[in-house]
Amino acid sequence: MPTKEEVFEKVQEALMDALGVDDDEVTPEATMVGDLGAESIDFLDIVFRLEKAFEIEIPRSELFPEDILTNAEYVQDGKVTADGVEELKKRMPFADLSKFEANPVVQDFGNLLTVNDLCRYVETKVGA
Amino acid sequence: MRWFWIDRFVEFESGRRAVAIKNISLVEEQMDGYGPWLPLMPATLIIEGLAQTGGLLVGEHNAFQERVVLAKVGKAVFHRPAMAGDTLTYTIIIESIQADGAICKGTSHIGDQLHAEVDLVFAHLDERFLGVDQFEPADFLRLLRLLRIYEVGRTESDEPLKIPDHLLQAEQEECSTFD
After folding, report:
1. Residue A25 at interface with chain B, using a CB cutoff of 8 Å
2. Is residue B120 part of a domain?
3. Handedness of CA A40, A45, A49, A55 (dihedral sign)
């Protein structure tokens, strides 16, 4: 079972390879989209590398809750409702959604995922 | 100018791996202007050839019902130049294929020598790209036949690869318009 440090190192390596960034750019607080420049196609590459590095399966909806973000029940006027945020928290217990909760604009969701969120997700999968 | 950067498939294992060849000839247009008196095969067109090999391999996995596009070149390393008279052997291995795209590893060899290594990511165009058609079906089938996919192609259970019905149908419809 890998330690938290080992998980971070492997996640860091996967992000460096997929995004062409340096190790000093991949800090725990760095956002995938804003700081590291990840685009939607990069996530396909990142998910593949993480699955290979940790021998886990990553169902797309666990990292990208598109079904919640596009559900009329949970989104109104471009913002996620309180119920919607609760659903997101349930689906993604590894993510720190406090910033998003303060201003839950749907468009911003993708931009808030950090390296730390990704590490914590992997930790839940590998039991670290 | 035609945009076929591979000449034919020599191996085709559905959903897994394909090998295609590209013969470089001094008469080709791209050998003329790339460098004065230095006719090299441009690396970009080698990547394109690998992408065509991979794109058709990935596309065939879903019987060419998905629109496959090259989305990302993760790495491209060239170990030596490619010159007129060389035959480039492109090998693509699918590492992962999902609903939204595929990840492939590509290599090019000149004889036994490793010439290039290119990592490719393909995407399937989704419903955001309605109405974007890549190929006219009957024309596309002609291309696949030209590239010998159905002559050398094998399914995952090692049976001969069959042409998808929708392409055969398009071909037959086109033939029925001839006098």
Report:
1. no
2. yes
3. positive
Tell me whether residue B157 is in a domain.
no
The parent domain of residue B31 ranges over 8-134
Residues 6+ apart with CB under 8 A from B158: none
A71 falls in which pLDDT band (50, 70, 90)?
confident
Residues of B in contact with A60 (CB under 8 A): 98, 100
A66 touches chain B (CB under 8 A): no
- Note down the domain range covering A16: 4-126
Tell me the pLDDT tens digit for each residue of B3-47.
Answer: 899 999 999 999 999 999 999 999 998 887 777 778 899 999 999
Q: CA A115 → CA A25, A40, B79, distances in Å?
A: 10, 16, 34
Mean pLDDT of B72-94: 96
CATH of the domain at A12: 1.10.1200.10
Q: How many distinct structural domains can be found in chain B? A: 1
A60 inside 8 A of chain B by CB? yes
In this complex, is the C-beta atom of A45 within 8 Å of any C-beta atom belonging to chain B?
yes
Segment A73-88, tens digit of pLDDT: 998 888 999 999 998 8
Q: Is residue B31 part of a domain?
A: yes
The residue among B147, B130, B145 whose CA lies nearest residue B52 is: B147
Residue B177 belongs to a domain: no
Distance from CA of B84 to the nearest CA of A (A): 33
Q: Is B175 exposed, middle or buried (CB count within 10 Å of its CB: 0-12, 13-18, 19+)? A: exposed
Contact B72 A17 (CB under 8 A): no
Q: What is the CATH number of the domain that holds B14?
A: 3.10.129.10
Q: ipTM score here? A: 0.74
For residue B1, the model assigns a pLDDT of 63
In this prediction the pTM is: 0.86
